[in-house]
Amino acid sequence: MYYMKKSLVAIILLFAMHPVWGQAIAVTEDKPYIDVTGVVEKELVPDEIYIRITLQEKYDKREKVGIEVQEEQMMTAFKDAGIHLNNLYLADADAGYVRIKRSKDEVLTSKTFTLMVSQVKEVARVFLELDKLDIRNAGIQRVDYSAMDSIRKVMRIEAIKAARAKSDYLLAAIGQQTGKALIVQERDNSGFDQGIVNVQHKSGYQEQHSENGYNLGLRDDLRFEKMKLSASVYVRFQIH
User: Fold this and answer.
1) Domains (ranges, CATH) in the chain?
2) Which of 54, 69, 91, 194 is deepest in the core (most CB within 10 A)?
């Protein structure tokens, strides 16, 4: 009788781990359990768009145009276009001017800013104003979602509920019920997919990718793809 019982357990384990199921049902003599994974996916529209802008000394008909002049012109243009200057700051809080050697006898300075806007139409206005000022060293650095932490929390809760629901209908098919959770583990949900649809600027500049983010050239028509976020939670439930 003892050997028959062990053989029965082995047969059940072999059947439960068959690849058709996608989740494991295991039975031991004292604690039968089921392993399931709940997955939730969402698409978010980014509401934090970070634009990196670098001003550099340049020449206009052999006359040098300094950083201060360009910075004042840029801030005036942004203000007139309804772009909030309180979201404009130095890209590196400890950095000011950077000197760039142009030739043996000449050194040009540059200054890099980060501007955060919340809507795509604001991005278009920013690049339009930069285009008017002939400031061409600018691009999208990154995008984000302001309530990301709250969204991730909600998604984790939905994922564990999805795991419970999966356990319920699988066990119901064999006349069993989901018991208490024995193990709960969050899977790696650190990554999310983000992107920008390639749209050509009227003056001919096109999207280019750089190591630090998106270098879009100058354009007045942008459309961001939605950010794809996922949450996955593994749970082992006892079987009743």
Assistant:
1) 1-45+146-240 (3.30.110.170), 48-144 (3.30.70.260)
2) 194
Whether residue 55 contacts residue 72, with contact meaning beta carbons closer than 8 Å, is answered with: no
Burial class (CB in 10 A: 0-12, 13-18, 19+), 237: buried
Please tell me the least confidently modeled range out of 1-15, 29-43, 127-141: 1-15
162: its two tokens: 């999805």
- Supply 2's token pair: 């003892």
- Looking at residue 184, its amino acid is V
Joined together, the tokens standing for residue 172 give: 């119901």
Instruction: Take residue 86 and report the two structure tokens written for it.
Output: 């309180």
Helix pair 120-132, 67-80: axis angle to 10 deg: 140
Question: For position 193, what pLDDT does the model report?
Answer: 55
In angstroms and rounded to an integer, the radius of gyration of the C-alpha atoms of the chain is 28
H-type alpha helices, the chain: 2-16, 67-80, 120-132, 148-172
pLDDT band, residue 209 (cuts 50/70/90): very low
Residue 220, number of CB atoms within 10 A of its CB: 15
DSSP per-residue string spanning 120-146: HHHHHHHHHHHHHTT---EEEEEEE-T
pTM: 0.65
Length of the chain (residues) = 240
Quick one: how far is CA 72 from the chain centroid?
Answer: 33
CB of 120 closer than 8 Å to CB of 37: no
Q: Which residues, 6 or more positions from 142, have their beta carbon under 8 angstroms from its beta carbon?
A: 50, 213, 214
pLDDT of residue 93: 54
